[in-house]
Each structure stands twice: as structure tokens, then as C-alpha cells.
Amino acid sequence: MFEKYKKVLKKDYDAWYQENKAYRDKVAKDPRRLKFHLMPETGWLNDPNGLCQFHGTYHIYYQYTPFEPTGELKMWAHCTTKDFIHYRDYGPVLFPDQDFDAHGVYSGSAFVDNDKIYYYYTGNVKYFDRDDYDYINSGRGSNTVMFTSEDGYHFSEKELLMTTDDYPEDISNHVRDPKILKHDGKYYMVLGARDKKSVGMILLYQSEDLRHWKYFDRITTEEPFGYMWECPDVFEIDGQLILTCCPQGIKPQGFDYHNPHQTAAMKLSYDFDTKESRIEEIKLMDRGFDFYAPQTFEDERGRRILIGWMGIPDAEYTNPTTEDGWQHALTIPRQISLRDGKFIQEPIEELRKLRCGGTKMAEFDGNEKKICDDVVYEAVVEYNKCKNMKMTLREGITLSYEDEVLTLDLGAYGSGRTTRKVRLESLEQLQIFADTSSLEIFVNHGEEVFTTRIYSLKGEISIEGQCEGMLTIYPLKSFLIE
Ligand code: FRU
């Protein structure tokens, strides 16, 4: 059924790894390497995959290719942690070693049920050598694949569940990134899809045993919202269904949708009996330059945790780390909630354990205040009032508030990128995580987030403007990876 391509087996990777110590040493010397973010040892990282907690241990898999910093052949790498401070890195664990995934073990997810982990992913095949090659309709195979594990480390054989021919007739060959949810005792698989008219949507499949899946429905907006929805996730918070996904092909509108591709959180009303669906509200999930493909899971404490890719496909700038042989990272884990109906993202509380002493607290009252020159820090700003303000977060990089608009400005350090903005009635609070080459800015207790890679390495923190309040800087230490 499948044409043959060159696959990469574990033994091929092991041989390559043996021969490439010099590559690893070169990457390790880059001063932009991050202290508390997961990143590739060499090469490229993108979407988080298979997130789950099993018997106390958090499992984080991700799209990875160690061979070059520009992407290409994807596999799944694996990390674990119990506390989000100490990690173990297992390197790549799933290889493109089958006919049905020869051009990439693409994104997917994990679902814990009956003391077992069920994994689903898209096996990608590119039919470059076909006479009728066409990117949208015939050029690739998008195969839904499953495997299981009793412990998160040892995996069963991959089982092919669906091929491109099994999806509905009017759907193009772009179908990928399966994620599972359980509702009223039945299992649903959500897949991101593009139809033949280039309308983005999700496909829903239903199953009673997690292995046999029947087409159930499709969900999209009333008016088309982009040509493809990647990396969908559907979950429930306080009785409200939330659909997150990454729509592609949306034009900028005001301050919104300026990145090459978007990540949206939608309030979904869906009747699983009548299949009536309505998307009621769409929120751009992140305001920064580098955020995509987030995935959530419920942990054993019942928290809904999200991790995203701190990067973006088809970026219009060259990430300076490319020259040093690596690109991209995952975001810090965030806890998701609904507050007064608003979609909220806040850093998980475990990250407080990264604070390592040397805390500086400063009241500010309008005059420019230079605080310190830390580079790797968490900053908490509590405003008593704020008419306008300008905060320097790193040399040349500012966050300012003026006329109810909050602006992140990368200045001379943007590598071609300039500003990102959001309208905000009032600025009350900021929580900022600055790593060597990244910023994650949580605004008003997580109502908005800006996630961005930055390349100014010189520390400088100051605040000025018609505002009063308290700024606390917590220097942060590295997390530990074995
Ligand atoms: C999103 C994405 C997914 C795909 C994966 C391949 O960044 O394009 O849709 O499965 O990356 O690496």
C-alpha cells in the first residue's frame, strides 16, 4: 500500500550520535542556551506531544530532529519529570521506521485509561515522486497510528488505524495531530483537517475501545477561519468545552493575527447526541512572536496543564541560534482555567522552586527606576495604579502601556521582528519569566500572554511612567536535566 522510502531506525540514529560529539559540543557553547526550558540537544524541536502524568511521573514527548537545525525528518523525543525542576532526557524514542511514517512521526497525544497509556500520532508520508504530486490533495499520506505503554518508557508495536483513504471524501490529504477526549463513557478523537476547498476544521471520530474509530462529525466556524487547523485539543473546564487549535491562513486584523500562523482558544458548545455545534468565542491565545501547537492534559491533581512550542512554523525571521546548530524550545508549563468566563494561563506553581535567593523588591512611583541587571529572572509587578508605563526587560527590549494598549517592542534586537500589541482596559499585574533567550509575559494574572524568543543578552531591568506599585525580581536558577 505504501511506497518505500528511506527510513531512520534507532540503530541509524545511535551510529549518528556516536559520530557527532563535536556537533553537541558546539551547540552547548551557545550563550543563548536556555536555563529552564526544554530544548533540543542539537537540531530542531517543535510541538509538544503525548503529554500525560502516569503513576506520579510527567511524560513530555516532543517533535524532534537532531540532525540539522532547520527541521526535516521528525521523530518523538522523550523527557520525564516529577516536579518540573528535575528532568530526565531519553533522547529520541519513536523513529520514522515504518512505511506508514517514513517521512515523519508527526504530532500526537497520550490518553491514560485503565492504567495504561494509549498514544496516537500521525505517520507522515510524502509522495514527492508521484506524477500527480499535489501538496493539498495527493502529495502526502496522513496515517493515524496508535501504540500503548504500561509505563511510559516501553512501547508496544505501532498499529496503523486509519490511512488518508479512510477520511471523508471531501477532505484533502492534510489530516493530522490526533488528540483524545472522553465524554459520557465514549471516546472521541479530534483530528486537525483541511477540506478540498481549503477550509480548516476538526474531524471527530468515536470509539468504544480506543482502537476502532468511526467517523462521527466535523466542527468548524460559521465563516471559514483559515485553510487548515493544526494541533487541535478539546477539553472541558467547569462544564465548558474549550477547543484550542492552530488555524493557518488568517489575515492580520487590528492587533491580532500578525504571526505567520495562529493559536486560538475557542468556546465550543457541542451536543454529542444531536451533533449541534457552535463556536461562541475565539481568543488569540498568545500575543508574542513565538507560540504554537500547545497541548493540554489533566494531571493527577486535576490541573489542566498546557505546554506549547516556543516557536512558529514558516517564521519570517531567522532565529540566530540556527547558526549555532539548534532551534526552538518548549514553553514553561502553564495551568489553564476559566475566570469570569475568560481563558486564563498561569505559570504552574512548581516554578517557584526555581527562585534562588537574591530577591530585590522596589517600590516605584513614576520616576525612572533602574532595578538591576539580572538576565534569568522572574519579575512580579503589582500596580496600585497605572496610567502609562515603560518597563525595560533586557537591554533594548521594552514593554509599555499607553492609551490602553500594551506593547512589546523588541527594538534593535528583533532580528526583523518589531512589536506586538494587545488592547487592555487596565494594567494591574505582570508576571514575567525571562530566560537567557526567551520571555513569557503573563498579564493581569494570566488574561493575556506574550511568548517570545529574544536575542539581547545584556541584562537591564527598569520601570518608569505614571504608575505606582511594587516590583519584585526573583533571580532564577537552571532546572536540572540528567
Ligand atoms: C505543527 C505541525 C503539526 C505536525 C508537526 C510536524 O507545528 O505542523 O501539524 O504534526 O508539526 O512536525
Automatic annotation (TrEMBL):
Biological process, per Gene Ontology: carbohydrate metabolic process
The name this protein goes by in its record: Sucrose-6-phosphate hydrolase
GO molecular function: beta-fructofuranosidase activity
Domain Glycosyl hydrolase family 32 C-terminal: 428-456
EC number: 3.2.1.26
GO CC terms in record: cytoplasm
Pfam families associated with the record: Glyco_hydro_32C, Glyco_hydro_32N
Gene3D superfamilies cross-referenced by the UniProt entry: Exo-inulinase, domain 1 (2.60.120.560), Glycosyl hydrolase domain, family 43 (2.115.10.20)
Domain of life: Bacteria
Catalysed reactions, semicolon-separated: Hydrolysis of terminal non-reducing beta-D-fructofuranoside residues in beta-D-fructofuranosides
Family, as annotated: Belongs to the glycosyl hydrolase 32 family.
Cellular compartments annotated: Cytoplasm
Physiological role: Enables the bacterium to metabolize sucrose as a sole carbon source.
Domain Glycosyl hydrolase family 32 N-terminal: 37-347
Cleavable signal peptide: none
Pathway entry: Glycan biosynthesis; sucrose metabolism
Keywords noted in UniProt: Carbohydrate metabolism, Cytoplasm, Glycosidase, Hydrolase
